[in-house]
Amino acid sequence: MVGDMFENVSGKFNTIISNPPYIRRDDIDDLDVEIKNFEPVLALDGGVDGLDFYRKIALLAPDHLCEGGIVFMECGEGQAEDIKNIFSSYTSVEIKKDINGIDRIIKATL
Description:
By secondary structure, the protein is of the alpha+beta class. It has 4 helices and 4 strands; from the N terminus they run βαααβαββ.
């Protein structure tokens, strides 16, 4: 199945997991060669502020989540608080740190 975000998805789920593109468009050229030369831009480009896909997920995920369902998402360094605000209509939003103590995972509960 091929689709754009939730385009070809039907039904309700308890959990949605996403690693959306979150690199700010202006930062893509400055990425390490190992990343920018081997990853398609489509997989990196999160829009001007890097948050475009989080806005889409926050808006569309409720149509695909069961009551109390959870969305887990990876985020870029320094983006967690903005993403938390984007998901402010959800019941709860938690930020989890990675092994280096950097905010890395967002857990949003509907």
